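User: I'm curious what two different proteins look like when written out as structure tokens. Can you demonstrate?

Assistant: Sure. I'll show them one after the other, since each token string lines up with its own sequence. Here's the first protein:
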Amino acid sequence: MRDFTPEFLSSYLDGSPADYLSSVGAYKLEETGIQLFEKIEGDYFTILGLPILPLLGFLRQRGTIAS
């Protein structure tokens, strides 16, 4: 996360607090939550809360979904 002012945080939380509180980590990275970060390292989907690409590979290997 980046350094930000208390004023920015208040403004951010005033945007859609119900959305943020229902999100993993209390931010919506795919929306305005990206403003909280300076950079992202790692798999985008894992950061969002579900490692979708490894999960799909796992399901394909087991024949649960078509490969």
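Here's a second, unrelated protein for contrast:
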Amino acid sequence: MKKVLVTGGTVFVSRYVAEYYVRKHYDVYVLNRNTKPQSEGVRLIEADRHCLGDALKQHHFDVVIDVTAYNETDIHDLLDGLGSFDDYILISSSAVYPEHCAQPFSEDTPIGENRIWGAYGMGKVKAERALQAHVPNAYILRPPYLYGPMNNVYREAFVFDCALQDRKFYLPGNGELGLQFFHVEDLCRFMDCLLEHHPSETVYNVGNSNTVSAKEWVELCYQAAGKRPVFVTVDPAIEQRKFFSFYAYDYCLDVSKMQKLMPATMPLADGLRDAFAWYCTHADLVNKKPYTEYIDAQLADPTDEC
């Protein structure tokens, strides 16, 4: 039985990862402060990653899956607190690529500041560099937008709400904004590939091979809910993050290196049906934003029925 440490373990990606490896009969430890409910089957190490003391020193882990490192301090403090381990996988982000670089971004694209993602992206850059300096053989994964069950970010859930309420959908501009996704189950499957094959390459873009337009994504979300959207076009001059789930920034990752190890990923339509099924019974776990309130107050024609 492999012994795995997952940082976090209570919200979205880290929780899904922990439960995935419980289902695979790993001996799963989660590191968190115990402020949220824990998943069944995990072993809790209750501690702050910045104040670990000897909480981890007595353990040897076959793999450390670090989902909650957002800067170099997060990396340094965890490494200082760890005992021994074989593999280390960092979930980084595609936000490490500067927006002005040529697309699709490859793993060879220089990383640095992205003005859209700001401090979040630079924090991930510094986390990657700190890890590579201390654990050169660690694996670093750079996903685009992650989605699926347990997603507490108000992205697909916002569109599901609009569909369930039979609302018209307010679409930024012509709806051609390019979006790239990766189902959290595929993220776990790719980590399985790394642990099985131990490739010499250590940095991977991960994601679906194809991008979709914002309009296509909304249509698929409505379809998952058994509905069809009626669109209202919103002037591109209006800040779209006030009424839509994504920034006005489209990008594309080259995931050909990932595909050599894992050629197939979950079709987006199937993944959104999976996400919708979860949301129907867990809507209270999503951090909702006031998009519809803004739409109703600032964009909607009061004489136009939803």
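A detail about the second structure: The mean pLDDT is 97.
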